[in-house]
Amino acid sequence: MTRRQLLFLLAALVVLVAAGAAVMMGKREDWRADDPRVGRRLVPDLVIAEVARIHIKDAQQETHLERDGEGQWRVRERKGYPAHIERIGDFLTKLAGLTIAQVEPMGESQRPRLDLVEPDKPQAKNTGIRLELAGKEGKSLGRLLAGKKVVRQTQATAPEKGTPQASGRYVLGADASAVWVISDPLDKLEADPAPWLARDLIRVQGAKTMTSLAADGTPRWRVTRESESANWRLADGSQKLEDSRVQDIVAVLIYIALADVATDPAQGGFDKGVTLRIDTFHNTHYTLQLGGIKKDPQGDLRYLKISLVGDPPAKRIPPAKETQEEKAKKDQEFEENYKGQLDQLAREGRLKDWTFLVKNADVEALLRDRAQLLPAAKPADGKGK
Question: Residue 175: CB partners within 8 Å, gap ≥ 6?
């Protein structure tokens, strides 16, 4: 056989292989398009209001989200701490609207490459994330196994512009005879309990006096102010404060967010920590115990315990020269604020049942000592220039 004949045969073989592949792909696309499951709901007949239990599990961890007798969502793995209601609502709403976009004829032996192996199989690899939904009586409302995310490269998501974003996900639903593809990556489907926790911890408003104590109860400093608009001063009046440095502490207290609920409170290091007591103009009293550091890949976390007690005044004392119109308006405002204070007292007062982890960077100002609240020392003449 001459070289020319050999090249001709190779070229013909390439054409035949390409044609065969095109025919096969065409048949496969026709099979997908004609499959009656395409377009159906991922979780058929899902009624969000009926969902009372959500179980999410991967190979390392799991989360049980459960509604209690009062309708409050809680996280079992975190001693029944309140769950993130908005996150659950958004997730269920999206889940209820998802449809099957594509059907892949794929046997069980091929599924590991799509991370579609059940997470509780002994020594299993390439496991997925299993989701189970149930009603109040434990009746199953839906089940699926989520595998790899679908990433399709386009000109808009070229490598030089960063990592392409996922556009869908492979899943196994109730019908395990084939793999389904959905047009959403289900980013919020996580088996880690932390993202499912309610984020708000405390909102300290109207701080009047703050006292910092060492681990043995020795006072580190105490500051106070006459009104919410007045400057802060040291309670003993011995030195002048740098008001902005105290305001940094107040700013932290206005909103402290949760990172996680500690599962190892005995390791909190509170015997070497700092306690901060805050009395407010509303006759509420906070005690914050700040413990040690817990290392985390996303940033250092600090252990925190919270206690709140109080008895906000139920009546307003109007000034002597207040008009009837002003009195009616301010009485209404006071009544609304009073109800809000009672709700806050009830919610935050229950936080004593848990030990928390918060981002250390968020609360570091609460650890300041007395020297860090004073004005910076001025350099001597001729120095520091």
Answer: 37
Q: Is 131 helix (H, G, I), strand (E, B) or coil?
A: strand
pLDDT of res. 2: 59
Task: Provide, for the chain, the percentages of residues in helix, strand and coil under a 3-state DSSP scheme, each rounded to the nearest 5.
Answer: 35, 30, 40
- Per the CB < 8 A criterion, the answer to whether 283 and 313 are in contact is yes
Q: Say how far apart CA 364 and CA 276 lie, in whole Å.
A: 12
Rg over CA atoms, the chain: 30
**How many other CB atoms are found less than 10 A from the CB of residue 35?**
17
Q: Distance between CA atoms of 2 and 80, rounded to whole angstroms?
A: 80
Strand 356-359's sheet: what is its strand order? 233-234, 219-224, 207-213, 274-280, 284-294, 301-310, 356-359, 260-261
**More confident of the two residues 28 and 80:** 80
DSSP 367: G
| CA gap 37, 103 in Å, rounded | 7
Q: What gap in Å lies between CA 253 and CA 213, rounded to an integer?
A: 17
Q: Are strands 62-67 and 284-294 parallel, antiparallel or unpaired?
A: unpaired
**pTM above threshold 0.90:** no
* pLDDT at 20 > cutoff 50: no
Give the model confidence (pLDDT) of 329-372 as tens digits: 988 998 999 999 999 999 999 999 999 999 999 999 999 999 99
